[in-house]
Design goal:
Layout (H helix, E strand, L loop, with lengths): L9 H10 L29 E4 L5 H9 L4 E4 L4 H4 L2
Antiparallel strand pairs: 1-2
């Protein structure tokens, strides 16, 4: 699975939650999971971007999503691709 941007700072996220009265939905909200979508408005690159996880069965994939153990795979757009 690929590398991703730096995780948010836990102290900064805690400050934002208090400031905006938002209750995090899990114990480590600064750890993010990654999913992918093609965002293919022209129908040219459909199905070439996907979410991947190191699992063998469908239910395990769902658990990987909930556990933030997924990554984006496949084609990644650039500004040149968006201009097609």
């Amino acid at each position: 699975m690929g590398a991703h941007s730096e995780e948010p700072d836990p102290d900064h996220l805690d400050m934002l939650c208090r400031k905006h009265a938002i209750e995090p939905f899990d114990a480590e909200p600064w750890i993010k999971g990654f999913t992918a979508g093609s965002d293919d408005h022209g129908g040219i690159f459909i199905g070439q971007t996907y979410t991947e996880a190191a699992v063998r069965h469908g239910q395990d994939f769902y658990e990987a999503l909930k556990g933030k153990k997924t990554a984006a795979g496949g084609r990644h757009s650039t500004i040149a691709l968006l201009s097609f």
